[in-house]
Write a structure and sequence with these properties.
This protein is an all-alpha fold. It contains 9 helices and no strands. Helix 4 packs antiparallel against helix 5.
Length: 147
């Protein structure tokens, strides 16, 4: 495996979807690329602007919150698991949350799963509450919606 091949692998990964630096590094290592060639490919991608953790954090935040109706706690955990720096994750979440109402997001997630009918008893309330917690919404947001 030579430097050109590793760089091509990196570009193919980035062509499919955005990646963070650590995520792409791990992926290239799993494909059998040597450490020094991975470092060169990552440096080249950074130099050419193909790889950017801040932009990756913004894209992942948008996708998780809009399309998958995840809350900020889950999105932050996803970003952390993918190796995004805490500062980049915080900035991406702040930027998204400025223009978004969390209760509306939680309502969309709940309605998709349970329908628009509010919980009628303790059992359904607990099911909906637990679902929203697993989706990454905080207790205040959930109680604003369900309370």
């Amino acid at each position: 495996m030579d430097a050109t091949h590793v760089y091509d692998l990196a570009l193919r990964c980035l062509a499919q979807r955005p990646h963070g630096i650590q995520e792409l590094t791990r992926k290239l290592h799993r494909k059998g690329a040597p450490r020094e060639l991975v470092a060169q490919a990552i440096a080249r991608c950074l130099e050419q602007g193909y790889l950017n953790d801040a932009a990756f954090a913004e894209a992942l935040t948008r996708d998780r919150m809009r399309n998958r109706q995840c809350g900020p706690l889950r999105v932050r955990a996803d970003l952390r698991a993918r190796g995004v720096a805490e500062a980049d994750a915080a900035t991406a979440l702040e930027n998204f949350l400025v223009a978004t109402d969390l209760v509306t997001l939680a309502r969309a997630a709940r309605d998709k799963r349970f329908g628009s009918v509010p919980p009628s008893d303790r059992v359904s309330l607990k099911k909906q509450y637990d679902f929203l917690v697993r989706r990454g919404f905080d207790a205040d947001t959930i109680w604003q919606l369900l309370g």
